[in-house]
Amino acid sequence: MKNVEVIKQIRKKVREKKYRLSLHSEKRMDKRKIHFSEVKHVISTGKIIESYTDDKPFPSYLILGHTHQRKPLYVLCALGENTVHIITVHWMDPKKWLDPETRRERKYE
């Protein structure tokens, strides 16, 4: 399935309140001072920048969007049959990203 279709399904399920926040995502949101309204905003306006279609039990997708304050924010979610599972939420880490859409090359020692 193409990312355009996937993001539409994710947005629809979130609008219909068919989502679950993992305990991990709740802890990260609290620690990183990210309000759920910003997560919903990123899902409704952002785009999928990475797809992990082999993830189990459901394929997962990294969505990049910008908060109302224009800060890049990432939401990782898995698309289940009936539910979107929000796995984690994080800010852009300059150690891992060249810019909001480009990961740095991993250096192996």
Could you explain how this protein is built, in words?
By secondary structure, the protein is of the alpha+beta class. Helices cover 29% and strands 34% of the residues. The protein has helices at residues 3-15, 23-31, 36-45, and strands at 19-21, 47-52, 60-66, 72-79, 84-91, 97-99, 102-103. The strands form 2 sheets. It has a 5-stranded mixed sheet with strand order 1-5-4-3-2. A two-stranded antiparallel sheet has the order 6-7. The termini are far apart.
Strand order of the largest sheet: 1-5-4-3-2
Give the low-confidence spans. Answer: none
CATH topology: YaeB-like fold
Share of helix, binned? 25-40%
Assembly classification: single chain
Structural class by secondary-structure content? alpha+beta
**Count of runs of 4 or more consecutive helical residues:** 3
Ends: how far apart? Answer: 36 Å
How many runs of DSSP E, i.e. beta strands?
7
CATH uppermost class: Alpha Beta
The Rg value, from CA coordinates, equals: 14 Å
| CATH architecture identity | 2-Layer Sandwich
Instruction: Provide the domain count.
Output: 1
